[in-house]
Amino acid sequence: MMLLLMPLAGWTLADAFRQSVLSNFDLRLSAYVDALAARVEIDEQGQLEVQQRPEELRFGKVFSGWYWQIGHADELVATSRSLWDTRLPWSRPTGASSRFSVTLNGPRDEALRGHALSMKMPGMDGEIRLLVAGPLEDVQRETAQFQRLLVAALSVLGFLLVVGFILQIRWGLAPLRGITRDLHAVRQGRTQRLGTALPKDLYEVAATMNEVLDHHQALIERARASAGNLAHALKTPLANLRLDLEREPPDRVAMRADLKRVDELVEHHLSRASAAGRAVASRQTALQVALEPVLSAVQGMYRERDLNFVVALDAEAVWRMDAGDLQELVGNLLDNAAKWARHRVELRSAHGPDGWVLVIEDDGPGIPEARLTQVRERGVQLDEHEPGGGLGLSIVTDIATLYDLKLHFENRQSGGLRVQLDFAGMMGD
User: Fold this and answer.
1) Residue span of the structural domain in which 244 resides
2) Staple 185 to which of 20, 29, 191, 220, CB 3.0 to 4.6 Å?
3) Which of these, 133, 125, 186, 141, lies nearest to 18 by C-alpha position?
4) Is 103 part of a structural domain of the chain?
5) Which of 238, 263, 280 is the last residue of a domain?
6) Helical ranges in 114-199 per DSSP H
7) Is the whole model's pTM more than 0.70, yes or no?
8) Could you tell me which residue ranges the Histidine kinase domain spans (predicted)?
């Protein structure tokens, strides 16, 4: 933008300088007119005469470009020697006062700048006209010299600005080039994270990208661990199936139990993989809307027990989490609470200091303190060793880990279990 404005700025400065030089030139001519007017007198015969004519060399050299003349009516009274036998045209602009500046042509058709004065003297009829003129070339020469200096200065300034812009861009883009190199290094496997020795704004970008890279790395490691766990978990039921098939006759009841276990293990690990995929790019989910079908399903499952479900969900609670993951997470927790509740299950949301929290409580027997300590330490598979156990809360733990949710278990003083999910940093924009 500055480079585009520089020609306009140069033209403005040059024009202002030309006006200033012309104004100063007019002041010099005006001073000559005043000095000439002071020498005009009326002699004893009532005629005009000039006492002590100006003797400056510029007015004495013929056709020097500097001239003066005094006229009365239509007659010339006196002229400078430089005019020789010629005269300057007298032309007062329309509406001009008794003193004015004018541009005119000289004896040799050169451009002149003149300053004129019309005055009256006692005993004289009509106006006395005084005119002093100088070469306009002096103004043009001084202006041209300034313009050359200005063009040179602006050219140097423009060059320095271009060089400065290039250096600034190279310096400003250097951190981005560093990020690009780090990304290539990550792609080639030479490193796993981006460097963070960056300006503040780019530091936040690099830190966010590192979080994404860490998350993807965690997903890869979790997938490897899940594959290993699945292979290890399938060894026992597959070995049992082999033994059952070798029996005569085959034990079909045992085979069905082993096949059911295999199906549960496969479904469990598929659920983990599905949750991991959805957690990569989660969307905003309204809590109240997403959990309505879950509540209806759980209430329907335990309708015969006549449980009292107390629900208090904030309509403004919005979380950056896939709706399916949220439903599976809360659904498993509600199912576990309803399974052990005597009369009452409570589901409520609240806004804590770090974000939204979701609380699920029941009035069941709770968990023995020794086991509760293990749950707090491991945070996994609360109900796997209880009657009717399964893989539900293991999936809950996996989903909570994927979204970096804090999962808390504690016994209520009045009896029952209290589960709290902290959604710090998961609030919608």
Assistant:
1) 214-280
2) 191
3) 141
4) yes
5) 280
6) 136-187
7) no
8) 229-427
